[in-house]
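USER:
Try writing one entry.

ASSISTANT:
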Amino acid sequence: MRVLLIGGGGREHAIAWSITKGGGVDELIAIPGNPGIGSLPNARCVRLPEGTSLRSPEGLTALADLAESESIDLTVVGPEDPLVAGIANKFASRGLRLFGPRSNPAKLEGSKRFAKELMLDQGVPTAASGSFEGAEAAGDAKAYLRSLKGPWVVKADGLAAGKGVVVTTEIAEAERWVDECLVESRFGSAGSAVLIEEYLDGPELSLLCLTDGREILPLPPARDHKRLLDDDEGPNTGGMGAYSPVPTVSDALIDQVLDTIVEPVISGISKSGDDFCGVLYTGLVLTEEGPKVLEFNVRFGDPEAQAVLPRLDSDLVEIMLACTEGRLGQVRAAWKQESCVTVVAAASGYPDSPRKGDVISGLDAAGARPGTYVFHAGTDHAEAARGDGDGSSAEIVTAGGRVLAVSALGDDLGQARDGAYEALSEIGFDGIQFRSDIARSAALEEESR
């Protein structure tokens, strides 16, 4: 079995680790990968030519060419950009097996308006909203904002590298965001339309499901921490940590989400002619009226993958293959009873202007702890980062905003949390940032039961 993995973040390292740990994969090739992925058994990283975009037609063709030349049996896509750009369509046209949805189902993440319209058609509970397109609609958008009670939520319609959403208690900031999207084209075509939503109040929950378009396999729920600083202060980020399971979430609640949200959405997508094959990530708010959809993603969450996949006690490749072959109903997933806590370490200056090139120490010591995993994200070999070597240097440096994630298993969340922070204490680089309260409240809740 030869697997091609597209992506190079912490999510992709967790996927690669889960794929290779079973021993059934002869070789895993990651594009572009990272030093952590490259250190896995039977794994190597390949870089496309400088300037090649994973979402451009040329980039998708290059990936398909590589899959053919390397006799790849299964391609797994980590990030959303290639999926929205149609990589699954490209691979299918050339008879190549890929785990991930085609471009039409991928619009669940690629267009917030598309997702909202599908939810309304299928009767899926979500926030009330208004949609506005073009500079001429800016005035109407602001009037709609003023008709709502704060906080105010404005979302760019398309993909904006995780920066296309603002949640604010200041209506002036929300109106300014409308202008930046519709009038000033801050996000280009991704912000040519905006979705303005009512604010949903309540704890958030992430539910990832694998599906072949008919059968649905829910993964254990997780909860992430979006804000940069402790106590949910500071700016929004891609995620500063996560944990699984979530003590306050019952099996009955998961069944409710599957019945009222996930199944209707998968069914609605199928009506459009494309079965959904891959991961459906449902971001939820547990309101007083019940769970409502905050967002959909069409890939594993990051850092949720780093908190959920260490708990998987089955062969991930076999499950993915079953999805691509329409036989998910024939496989079962086993899960460890242990809990997992993931803490993200970010670079100095993150999220606005992360610094690169700082030497990272303590990676081996942290990873050597039992039940602990260090997943690389924004890292690189020192020589490759400087552009004067082949990337073979043993010295690892920071190369992105979220540098790495430390995940630890434990008998309960408290033990897992202790393990994650003890391992993280081994790691150092200039300006390291991390939250000290990941899973703290959940561990206390669990302990009090």
User: Anything to note?
Assistant: The CA atoms of residues 281 and 297 lie 5 Å apart. The chain has a mean pLDDT of 95. The domain at 129-197 is CATH 3.30.1490.20 (Dna Ligase; domain 1). The first helix runs from residue 10 to 20.
